[in-house]
Design a protein that fits this description.
By secondary structure, this protein is of the alpha+beta class. It contains five helices and seven strands; from the N terminus they run E-E-E-E-E-E-E-H-H-H-H-H. The longest helix has 16 residues.
């Protein structure tokens, strides 16, 4: 993702970083009617580029999972709605998104949040979650 997309604890949805001020961030919500607001030093702000999910092996970056969902669903929003999806629907969604997810450490709330974030991003026109340069980088290139 070229834009810096953020999650702010205590505020629903996702936000796009617009600018940085002195001791605060200026962010814009990714809603139908975007609103600008600030996130101060006391807010817990997390970039989606820094989030990973537990698997049976090594953790997998959220951007890779979002790209996998996008490719599997051919760019369509998921039916796993945050409010109405049952636990079995969410588990089916996770098996499609990340088949090796850790069933003990990934909770239902995490699955709901993943589905919600994916739908928000797709509705806002995000189609590439993994940078092409990063995806093509081989382990030999990373060692240099």
């Amino acid at each position: 993702m070229k834009d810096t997309i953020l999650s702010i604890s205590g505020k629903p949805g996702l936000f796009k970083l617009v600018a940085q001020g002195r001791g605060m961030l200026i962010v814009e919500s990714l809603e139908e009617n975007p609103k600008r607001t600030t996130a101060g030093a006391r807010d817990r702000v997390t970039s989606l580029n820094d989030v990973a999910m537990y698997t049976d092996g090594e953790d997998v970056a959220l951007t890779e999972i979002l790209q996998n969902i996008f490719n599997t669903l051919k760019g369509q929003p998921t039916d796993a709605d945050k409010k109405t999806a049952s636990k079995s629907d969410l588990e089916s969604f996770m098996k499609m998104a990340l088949p090796t997810y850790d069933r003990d450490r990934v909770h239902t709330s995490d699955m709901k949040k993943l589905a919600q974030w994916y739908n928000i991003l797709v509705k806002n026109g995000y189609t590439e979650f993994v940078d092409k340069e990063e995806a093509q980088e081989t382990p030999a290139d990373a060692a240099e």
